[in-house]
Design a protein that fits this description.
This protein is an alpha/beta fold and about 140 residues long. It has helices at about 15-20, 35-55, 100-105, 135-140, and strands at about 60-65, 70-75, 80-85, 110-115, 125, 130. Strand 3, helix 3 (about 100-105) and strand 4 form a beta-alpha-beta unit. The longest helix is centred in the N-terminal third of the chain and has 21 residues, at about 35-55. It starts with 13 loop residues before the first helix and ends with a helix. The relative contact order is 0.14.
Length: about 140
Amino acid sequence: KRQRTAPKFYFFYIGIQRSLLRQTGIPLNQSTYEYGTLFEQWVILEISRLLDYQQRDWEIFYLRTKDDAEIDLIIDRPGLPIALIEIKSSHKIQDHDLHTLKAFKKDFSKCEAFCISQDLSERIVDGITCLPWQKAFYALGL
């Protein structure tokens, strides 16, 4: 697989993006693409904040191929398996939500795969640990 080389940029606070887009007065609806994007960014910012606070020597990345297949977050955790993370704002994780993560999991010899969402149930699907965001940080070792 070939990676794309463009980096992602995350504002340190999700309200900044909405402010720059002049959307602060517009209600945010949960079933929209924008809500999903902001939820993903919030989870990543929380993980980054926890890493800084705990002074962990972990590195975070994301992966997108030339075919636009993407893993939202990869955490290189020395002493632990690499964490592949898919972030979904959905309240009910479906099998199709895990398709990309299943495909990438095969490419990493030693990894743990997680799907972080707003789904309240915990479960393991094809070796992927699906967790509500409230439990995910602890499960990652943060």
